[in-house]
Design a protein that fits this description.
The structure is a homodimer of 216-residue chains. Chain A has 216 residues and is an alpha/beta fold. In chain A, β6, α8 and β7 form a beta-alpha-beta unit. Chains A and B meet through α1, α5, α6, β7 and α9 of A and α1, α5, α6, β7 and α9 of B.
Chain lengths: 216, 216
């Protein structure tokens, strides 16, 4: 387990490495074979010196003349990020957000597979959903039997705490939480909170702040 | 317009103030009238000293004995965050994510109103959607006529650049982007990128990193 301070630094670095990797895939797609730190920085929304600093932390070096070999670099980043094989993920809550996530095409592309959904009302699943849906009381068994490490919470506020506690009790290692409550992981469990309402509210605040700053 | 460095500090502070505000609403809901920085810190997932520091930056002070008066504090935070009245928002893209957002109940609670959706295929809208859906070529007129400042992008990767350019050309001030591409706002336009795929991937990386750290 990381302590809070170093954990946040490591997280920020991992976030950037992951952005570089996605940027490299995009550069590769449009025909690039080599890339300079400037190219990667532009594509990932960072500065070139940040890119070089992050890479050098992990012993990745390019040549001044030739830059980085993209395929090697992607391999290196994947090794650092520890992505290996398909990741099986379960979703708790099959409301609108849950269903949208179940059918989200981007996940498959990244080797992420939503293998099951769970709900107190599994009948809610319509036949448009290709992912099997089970009753919430089957959650723990399913997670243990299938060695699931990652769970998504997509239930309303009122049901979020129960969903969180059930996932933790079942031994899940990482939780992506879409419910409007800020969960903190107990020791050894990583939690990412995505609060759509707060994201949109904050955007409005930023816009207001920009406009106020302009008036000054 | 902020420069990049101070902009990121201001953003982080605004993000925390917004979390404090939501925490205060929750505390108020369960009957609290006053709150100490510890209570707010616990509910918002921050430290008490960070809470006091952020408040004092904006001249908000509590008494040592009595703490903060919650209703006053919320008023102060709303004044700082510049939230006033309903915010009208448009969505470009009415696929699964777009439709889930259109019907997302949390938005209304925060005074955010999704007033219209736009798509190259407006026929896709089923009659379950209560928000009117128009063809994409009506976007600019609608934004100008209705003085819309905030737009959401919920289109696939391939259509994202066009959607972004159209929103910018129409004079939008803030964009919440769900497409898997990292947009940076031109001067005076605030962009928040929410990449669900990257969020989930990063969570997997964090879990891997935690497990590696445990082995060391």
């Amino acid at each position: 387990m990381f302590d809070q301070k170093s954990s946040s630094k490591i997280r920020n670095c991992i976030l950037r490495l992951s952005r570089y990797k996605n940027a490299l895939y995009r550069l590769e797609k449009i025909g690039f074979v080599k890339a300079f730190s400037d190219n990667i920085a532009d594509a990932a929304g960072e500065t070139a010196s940040q890119v070089r600093k992050d890479f050098s932390l992990f012993g990745i070096t390019g040549s001044k003349r030739g830059g980085y070999q993209i395929d090697e670099l992607i391999q290196n980043l994947n090794a650092i990020l520890g992505k290996n094989g398909n990741q099986k993920v379960v979703i708790v809550g099959i409301g609108r957000i849950g269903r949208a996530l179940m059918e989200y095409e981007g996940f498959k592309k990244s080797g992420i597979e939503i293998v099951a959904g769970f709900d107190i009302d599994p009948e809610k699943a319509d036949n448009q959903i290709s992912v099997p849906v089970f009753h919430l009381h089957e959650l723990q068994d399913f997670i243990i039997k299938n060695d699931i490490r990652i769970g998504i919470i997509a239930v309303p506020y009122i049901a979020a705490r129960q969903a969180f506690d059930m996932l933790v009790a079942a031994g899940i290692k990482g939780i992506l939480n879409f419910a409007p409550i800020h969960f903190k992981g107990p020791t050894g469990i990583v939690v990412t909170n995505v609060n759509l309402e707060v994201e949109l509210e904050n955007l409005i605040y930023f816009v207001n702040a920009e406009e106020k700053a302009k008036e000054l």
